[in-house]
Inverse folding.
């Protein structure tokens, strides 16, 4: 089987595409997972010289969207050295790289000599090949490679410096083994997304009440409420630095299965300004009274401490204490005293879900990745 040997030099994007049908009613929604295992697509951009561009174009014309090729997973690139011609095994620390028995490994030297080899078995930190290496290598790299197809046309642009910029998306037809795992804590039966976007990326919120517009052209515009509850949606972003962080977040997305599974997420806004220390053995949190808002919220909250730790609690009632303070009565008592100066914020824990079935990892030159996902409140 032919391999795609060209090295992307201008960015790699991995896309995970689930499929969920969301059925909304006036006051709730039902979600049905239609594709519990995602399709994986990899978008790559290449900077090629003339002969390389010619070879890439010929491969694209030969295989197109119908012929399987071997596609390297460049995001899992690993360094290696001193490989001998005739060797049938590679000693390499996997470092979470996605090698799969029966699939392939791509070996490429610093002088651009390369070969694709099929993997027979994986044991400890060794890769055993079905056939011996045809060349010897000094300093080189090994990359897991999987069977796939071109899922887009191959496009190439000639620049004034005579380099060719090629771009293509590949569909990985081989299912990538993954271990869905939840790296976050749970509260009241749901995962709590404790990644703090304001430190690890960014977060944007939008709040609205959906309505149907009636426009009589000449007369006034009127609106009718479409759903019983207002919704909040937005975008969260992560900037990940290590392969381990990427793996953990990817495994969590496998748990969510796109739009299917909901989770709690702190608002990360100081919605309830604490006015007193929180005493152990009590169920009260005292907050500054907000004259612009009559608090009616009942539900889970997150107390964010200045050392970064989080305390989860559930409000069962809000009462007025005096003209300056309200009290939040929780369903359980606090185990520890929290000094007022240690409380950074008290915010709602909101039940959310992904508002997209496609998650994209945009890999950086430093082996990290940026991830963006739209989210929406579950009503």
């Amino acid at each position: 089987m032919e391999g795609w040997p060209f090295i992307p030099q201008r960015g790699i994007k991995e896309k995970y595409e689930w499929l969920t049908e969301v059925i909304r009613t006036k006051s709730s929604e039902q979600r049905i997972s239609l594709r519990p295992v995602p399709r994986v697509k990899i978008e790559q951009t290449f900077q090629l010289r003339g002969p390389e561009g010619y070879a890439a174009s010929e491969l694209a014309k030969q295989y197109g969207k119908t012929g399987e090729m071997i596609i390297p997973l460049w995001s899992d690139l690993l360094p290696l050295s001193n490989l001998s011609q005739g060797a049938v095994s590679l000693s390499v620390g996997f470092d979470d790289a996605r090698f799969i028995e029966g699939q392939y490994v791509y070996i490429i030297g610093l002088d651009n000599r390369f070969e694709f080899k099929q993997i027979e078995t994986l044991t400890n930190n060794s890769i055993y090949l079905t056939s011996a290496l045809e060349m010897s290598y000094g300093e080189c790299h090994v990359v897991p490679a999987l069977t796939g197809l071109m899922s887009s046309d191959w496009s190439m642009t000639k620049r004034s410096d005579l380099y060719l910029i090629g771009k293509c998306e590949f569909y990985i037809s081989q299912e990538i083994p993954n271990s869905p795992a939840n790296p976050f804590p749970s509260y009241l039966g749901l995962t709590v997304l404790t990644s703090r976007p304001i430190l690890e990326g960014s977060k944007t919120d939008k709040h609205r009440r959906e309505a149907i517009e009636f426009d009589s052209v000449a007369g006034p515009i009127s609106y009718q409420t479409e759903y019983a509850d207002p919704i909040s949606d937005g975008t969260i972003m992560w900037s990940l630095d290590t392969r381990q962080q990427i793996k953990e977040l990817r495994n969590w997305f496998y748990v969510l299965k796109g739009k299917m599974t909901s989770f709690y997420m702190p608002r990360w806004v100081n919605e309830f300004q604490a006015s007193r220390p929180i005493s152990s053995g009590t169920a009260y949190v005292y907050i500054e009274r907000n004259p612009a808002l009559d608090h009616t919220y009942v539900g889970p909250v997150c107390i964010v401490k200045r050392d970064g730790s989080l305390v989860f609690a559930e409000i069962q009632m809000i009462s007025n204490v005096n003209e300056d303070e309200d009290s939040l009565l929780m369903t359980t008592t606090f185990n520890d005293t929290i000094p007022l100066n240690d409380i950074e914020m008290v915010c709602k824990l909101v039940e959310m879900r992904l508002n997209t079935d496609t998650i994209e990892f945009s890999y950086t030159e430093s082996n990290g990745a940026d991830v963006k996902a739209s989210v929406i409140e579950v009503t």
Q: What stands out?
A: The longest strand covers residues 29-48.
